[in-house]
Specification:
mainly beta, five-stranded antiparallel beta sheet, 3% helix, elongated
Length: 171
């Protein structure tokens, strides 16, 4: 039997965040209009990467032994114009003390309603249920001297899974 579970985070993972975001609670309030923001000043000699870790996804209701068929992630995020001062925006996952699954790049957009939905691979049920499971958003800046703003509005994860049948029981 195929089932679907969609979850959102409920807190910041301060162990994965590498910057202090303004209004960080907006990153997990399920709104696409209230945003967590980060002002970043470029470094003239090196690229900069800043991260926002989010956790509290609740995948405990997926029965042990289930087969993960597909995982999609929808992210609402944007960067300030001009976007060319940013190197990239993307995300990866953390579980059981390590980076897990596939990392993904997102669209570099200054549209405040920008959303990306991507299919991710490499995550296991054990990863999803790990006590330290986290979604980690990252933004990279090119070298230079300008300041830019990264905005993060929302993330949801949808897991499609199958529960293995035990067959029939006859009494």
């Amino acid at each position: 039997m195929a089932l679907t579970l969609t979850q959102t985070p409920n807190s910041e993972d301060t162990n994965r965040s590498t910057a202090t975001w303004t209004n960080v609670a907006n990153a997990y309030d399920s709104s696409t209009t209230t945003l967590a923001t980060l002002s970043i000043t470029q470094n003239p000699s090196i690229s900069i990467v800043k991260r926002l870790g989010l956790n509290g996804f609740n995948f405990a209701n997926i029965p042990n032994g289930s087969k993960i068929n597909n995982i999609t992630v929808t992210v609402y995020q944007s960067v300030s114009s001009p976007t060319n001062r940013f190197a990239s925006v993307g995300f990866f996952f953390w579980a059981n003390g390590n980076s897990v699954g596939s990392g993904n790049f997102l669209t570099l957009s200054s549209n405040s309603n920008n959303s990306d939905t991507v299919t991710v691979s490499g995550l296991t049920l054990n990863d999803l249920k790990a006590s330290d499971f986290a979604f980690v958003f990252e933004v990279g800046m090119q070298t230079g001297t300008a300041t830019g703003t990264s905005s993060f509005g929302y993330v949801s994860m949808t897991v499609d899974y199958s529960v293995e049948s035990w067959g029939s029981l006859y009494l």
